[in-house]
Specification:
By secondary structure, the chain is an alpha/beta fold. The chain is built from 13 helices and twelve strands. Strands 4-3-5-12-6 form a five-stranded mixed β-sheet, sandwiched between helices. The protein has a five-stranded mixed β-sheet with strand order 9-8-10-7-11, with helices on both faces. β8, α10 and β9 form a beta-alpha-beta unit. α1 crosses α2 and α2 crosses α3.
Length: 318
């Protein structure tokens, strides 16, 4: 039994049992993958995959039982390598962070800059995706950390810690009736906002759930004429007059967004919490703790260590 055999089995499941994709992911040949799997099955005395000719169709019952053990073994092998590197090359390595677009574009730049100043020999790799993609990247070991607002707390194998809270703003062009009403001292209401076509985030991203919930509580129907993951895209279409934008407050920059006006919407929509996610049981190198604290100063190494030692389901608040 060897780690290459274990990786072949794990990657086969990840790639939907497509051995061509497995071979590409592991930088080897398809016959080599088949041989690794067959040798492991012979050693274990059970078939891990159901087959149709040479095609793999899925996991057998023994395979479904054994796969989590394989995942744990490979996870601990990664931890072992990280622990060794932490002592032999404490100031060198790779830090991979998966984040949603909003976090990558607006929340992370300052932390990345400050981290690079203090850790010049650590390569920083930033991956972007939806909140659920971020969670899967951390769970799969493709990222050391995940940063998002939605979904992360839904995964029991992730430890999630709150970083900061934020609210939404409504953005309109300067001549829009809502801008004129705000200038006249009129408070923005959901009922008034629902009278205009809206442009906001896709479902499951950047606090969209709180937007839908707010209108739902008031029994108001609303028309989202365009949705996107990117606040810059939303602002572009607001400038074109297609609708009223609802975006994260951090995504509005008065110095740059000179053609738009931001209207405070914290009284309309619930406050959102951005969290950092770590795979339960992961060994974090010292510089990973340093980056977490750079991004969220309240998350000291002691706080993170306590969270990692906590049982599944434990919650942490700001």
């Amino acid at each position: 039994m060897n780690f290459q055999q274990l990786r072949s089995v794990r990657e086969t499941v990840r790639q939907g049992f497509n051995l061509t994709l497995v071979a590409q992911a592991l930088h080897t040949s398809q016959p080599g993958i088949s041989r690794q799997i067959k040798e492991l099955e012979e050693e274990l005395g059970v078939e891990l995959f159901t087959r149709s000719g040479r095609r793999l169709l899925g996991l057998t019952p023994p395979g479904a039982t054994i796969l989590p053990i394989i995942e744990r073994l490979l996870h601990e092998a990664d931890n072992l390598r990280s622990a060794g590197a932490d002592f032999s090359q404490a100031d060198r390595g790779l830090l991979t962070v998966a984040a949603t677009h909003t976090q990558a574009r607006y929340a992370l730049p300052g932390a990345v800059r400050d981290f690079r100043d203090t850790h010049p020999h650590v390569s920083f790799h930033l991956q972007q995706g939806s909140a659920r993609q971020v969670a899967q990247q951390v769970l799969g070991g493709q990222a050391d950390l995940g940063i998002a607002t939605e979904a992360l707390a839904d995964y029991p194998d992730l430890v999630t810690l709150p970083c900061y809270r934020w609210t939404h703003v409504v953005v309109v062009d300067r001549g829009h009736p809502l801008a004129q009403e705000a200038a006249a001292g009129q408070a923005l209401t959901l009922r008034r906002l629902a009278q205009f076509p809206l442009i906001t985030y896709e479902g499951g991203t950047t606090g969209r759930g709180h937007i839908d919930e707010a209108f739902g509580r008031e029994g108001l129907s609303f028309d989202v004429v365009l949705s996107a993951m990117d606040a810059d895209v939303i602002k572009t279409y607001v400038e074109l007059g297609i609708g009223v934008g609802v975006i994260a407050s951090m995504a509005f920059d008065a110095a740059r967004d000179t053609h738009l006006v931001a209207l405070d919407a914290r009284h309309l929509f619930a406050t959102n919490t951005t969290r950092v996610a770590i795979k339960r049981g992961a060994y974090l190198r010292g510089y990973v703790f340093d980056f977490i604290r750079t991004f969220a100063p309240t998350l000291t190494r002691e706080v993170v260590d306590r969270a990692l030692a906590s049982p599944p389901g434990a919650s942490f608040d700001l």
